[in-house]
């Protein structure tokens, strides 16, 4: 600890903690809301999938029409990539993200390793989500409404955590003063919407025409 001389007496100098980069509170909000939302939809999906396993005639709550059909997706191998229902992963990961968001909103200065863990977790989630998007659009040809809610949550959490880590210099290099980054996230969501419309043009036209 550094000291300074005051009236001939060495007095300890209290070092101020490093200031959090701007937008840290927004990251906490996104993690908390996204984590809670993802946990809820994961639970709903798991309950429906278990009901479908018990009764093949069961119609999941998010099976609305031939395109918005969770039941179609739940019957594929992609719905249990690791040998168990995918929502189990969400039930483990999303509450952790929500807890981290609550800590940030509570004013807790997370150590760098915690931000690295969030970065790794959201990156893995992002890769998994985009694999599911490709499978839904290209292979299965069906959409799961609850899954799409989880897609939105994971992408937002990845985006805000990455921006925060770049601003704080957690990813190496000097801190990057990123501002007005929301347009990038909006463009990302728009690209997914365009891909959905391009895959199901007649269905999308029907939605507009209703």
Automatic annotation (TrEMBL):
Main location, first listed in the record: membrane
Name of this chain's protein: Vitamin K epoxide reductase family protein
Localisation: Membrane
Key words, A-Z: Disulfide bond, Membrane, Oxidoreductase, Quinone, Redox-active center, Transmembrane, Transmembrane helix
Gene3D superfamilies tied to this protein: VKOR domain (1.20.1440.130)
Family: Belongs to the VKOR family.
InterPro entries in the cross-refs: VKOR (IPR012932), VKOR_Actinobacteria (IPR041714), VKOR_sf (IPR038354)
Topology in membrane: Multi-pass membrane protein
Top-level taxon of origin: Bacteria
Keyword Transmembrane helix on entry: yes
Region (Disordered): 1-21
Domain spans labelled Vitamin K epoxide reductase: 24-165
Pfam families in the cross-refs: VKOR
Transmembrane segments: 26-47, 88-106, 113-133, 139-161, 182-204
């Amino acid at each position: 600890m550094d000291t300074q001389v005051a009236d001939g007496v060495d007095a300890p100098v209290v070092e101020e903690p490093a200031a959090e980069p701007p937008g840290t509170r927004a990251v906490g909000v996104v993690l908390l809301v996204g984590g809670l939302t993802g946990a809820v939809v994961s639970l709903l999906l798991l309950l429906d999938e278990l009901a479908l396993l018990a009764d093949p005639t069961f119609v999941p709550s998010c099976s609305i029409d031939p395109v918005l059909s969770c039941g179609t997706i739940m019957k594929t191998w992609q719905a249990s990539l690791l040998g168990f229902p995918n929502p189990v992963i969400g039930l483990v990961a999303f509450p952790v993200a929500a807890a981290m968001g609550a800590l940030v909103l509570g004013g807790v200065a997370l150590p760098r390793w915690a931000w690295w863990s969030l970065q790794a977790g959201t990156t893995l989630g992002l890769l998994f989500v985009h694999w599911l998007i490709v499978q839904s659009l290209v292979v299965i040809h069906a959409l799961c409404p609850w899954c799409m809610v989880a897609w939105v949550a994971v992408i937002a959490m990845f985006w805000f955590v990455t921006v925060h880590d770049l601003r704080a210099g957690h990813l190496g290099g000097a801190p990057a003063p990123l501002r007005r980054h929301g347009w990038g996230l909006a463009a990302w969501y728009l690209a997914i919407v365009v891909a959905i419309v391009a895959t199901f043009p007649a269905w999308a036209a029907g939605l507009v025409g209703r």
